[in-house]
Design goal:
Blueprint: H1 3-16, E1 25-29, H2 35-43, E2 48-51, H3 54-67, E3 72-75, H4 84-90, E4 93-97, H5 100-113, E5 118-122, H6 136-148, E6 153-157, H7 166-179, E7 184-186, H8 193-198, E8 203-206, H9 208-211
Parallel strand pairs: 1-2, 1-8, 2-3, 3-4, 4-5, 5-6, 6-7
Bound molecules: pyridoxal-5'-phosphate.
Residues 29, 31, 52, 76-77, 159, 189-190, 205-209 line the site of pyridoxal-5'-phosphate (PLP).
Length: 219
């Protein structure tokens, strides 16, 4: 597939859901992809990318940012508190705020730096032991706690369990966001972004459908 095909499919899904054209932002997930593939997508004019490791992002993006203006970088993977400052300086948004300790660290650093990326709270909608994120039952309180720390919480993010119907998880995430007055919904990947758009996604995170299969698995 290609960038153009994915943007066409996003436009169709927006129209089908009765949503405005351009209401869904495409985060092209470039993790582990060779630089020539990333560069090809930059050359086609796309400027919004997602990485799930700070170290990898820090190695790859400063160079690209010098050559291509207006790149928006999203951190979508687990963030260790000792890398929070680096992530905040490198990324425009962090979609993986997944625990109180990280929220406190980001709040402190935001004071020091005088700025903070847009934040999305990751919700573990499948309540999976191995997966990061706030449990659905704790989400309302965590949103309130983050807002009390003046963190710019723009929305929620989820990664559905691989063996379950993703639409159920997208609907749950939308419900939690709605009752907390949050408008951002980061949900939908290569295999299910159209379903996510039907259920209100504002950000879809698509990797392999744009770039091809990842060359080596992350692990
Ligand atoms: C890798 C990744 C994606 C993209 O996955 P694809 O199936 O390649 O589209 C989306 N979200 C997160 C959090 C990821 O780590």
């Amino acid at each position: 597939m290609s960038l153009q095909e994915i943007t066409d499919r996003i436009a169709k899904a927006e129209a089908k859901a009765g949503r405005n054209a351009g209401s869904v932002k495409l985060i092209a997930v470039s993790k582990v992809q060779p630089n020539d593939r990333v560069e090809a997508v930059l050359e086609q004019g796309h400027r919004c990318f997602g990485e799930n490791r700070v170290q990898e992002a820090a190695g790859k993006w400063p160079g690209f940012k010098e050559r291509f203006l207006d790149v928006d970088l999203y951190l979508i993977g687990p963030l260790q508190t000792n890398k929070a400052r680096q992530a905040m300086e490198l990324c425009n948004a962090i979609h993986s705020l997944d625990r109180p300790k990280l929220a406190k660290t980001i709040a402190r650093l935001a004071q020091e730096i005088g700025a903070c990326p847009d934040l999305f709270i990751q919700v573990n909608t499948g309540e999976e032991a191995q997966k990061a994120g706030i449990l659905p039952a704790d989400a309302d309180e965590f949103v309130a706690d983050c807002q009390a720390m003046d963190l710019p919480i723009r929305g929620l993010m989820c990664i559905p369990p691989v063996d379950e119907e993703p639409a159920l998880h997208f609907a749950l995430l939308a419900k939690i966001a709605s009752r907390n007055g949050l408008t951002g919904l980061s949900m939908g990947m290569s295999g299910d972004f159209e379903s996510a758009i039907a259920l209100g996604a504002t950000h879809v995170r698509v990797g392999s459908a744009i770039f091809g299969e990842r060359v080596k698995p992350q692990g």
